[in-house]
Amino acid sequence: MMKPTNEMAVSFLSCSANESFGRAAVAAFAAQLDPTIDELSDIKTAVSEAVTNCIVHAYRDTLGVIYITCKLYEDGRLSIRIRDKGCGIEDVEKAMQPLFTTSENEERAGLGFAVMESFMDKLRVTSKPGKGTTVTMYKTIKRRQAEKNT
Amino acid sequence: MGVRLLLKDGEMTALLSGEIDHHSAREIRTEVDEAASKVKPKRLTLDFSGVQFMDSSGIGLVMGRCKLLQMWGGSVRVANLNPKIEKIVSLAGLNQLCTIVKDVNYDEAYE
Q1: Could you report the per-residue pLDDT of A89-142, keeping only the tens digit for each?
Q2: Distance between CA B17 and CA B1 in Å, rounded?
Q3: Which terminus has fewer CB within 10 Å in chain B: N or C?
């Protein structure tokens, strides 16, 4: 595994008002890779889904801390780890199926993991019931050579 | 985040603006549903031209309004999606649930 060239960590309370803070913090850190607006939007959307999962599912009816760690690598790869110490997921594979939701009457579309999977290059989810869930996502930001040279 | 509601000939338009996530979707839902339940419009247009960001909470928002309007035989259409929002809308397959239209303009006399 390559050593990261830069790293950041933030943690915040699982209030829904912090959803915009979470995605903005990651986007601000990712900005140093000079991503396109579309790449940045993909990252913000994926982070927003993961953070919302922590608030809606992991810490349902309670408040807990959401931990985000981002790492940058020399090859332009960005890793984002979003971790909670909430209720955990019994069956990760089932939870990751598109349209599966446990919050039907709260108008959750059941698309969180599907969005993370399609907007990022790679997604890994590990969970222990009663202990919490860790979502790790990767995206490589291509260097825009043509613009760099001018 | 904000909602502006327009009404004309039994049709309602909700002009949405700002960022739509799980937090802001709740407020939008309350505002739209309160007015729609009173008026019972035959068509509700959700206009996204002022929306800069949307995650899957926005999909839930559209799906929920479709369900509400169905209660009195009304329909929902979604208008003026930017390419970023269109990406998540097509991933969700919203076109199977409601009409998606481009470039809808509203004349001044609409409000």
Answers
A1: 999 999 998 878 887 777 888 899 999 999 999 999 999 999 999 999 999 998
A2: 5
A3: C
pLDDT tens readout for residues B45-73: 999 999 999 999 999 999 999 999 999 99
Instruction: Extract the runs of DSSP E, i.e. beta strands, from chain A.
Output: 6-13, 65-72, 77-84, 122-128, 132-140
CATH 3.40.47.10 fits A6-149, yes or no: no
Residues across chain B: 111
A115 CB near a chain B CB, below 8 Å? yes
**CATH class of the domain defined by B2-104:** alpha beta
User: How near does any CA of chain A get to the CA of B60, in Å?
Assistant: 5
A71: Cβ contacts below 8 Å, ≥ 6 apart: A4, A6, A7, A78, A79
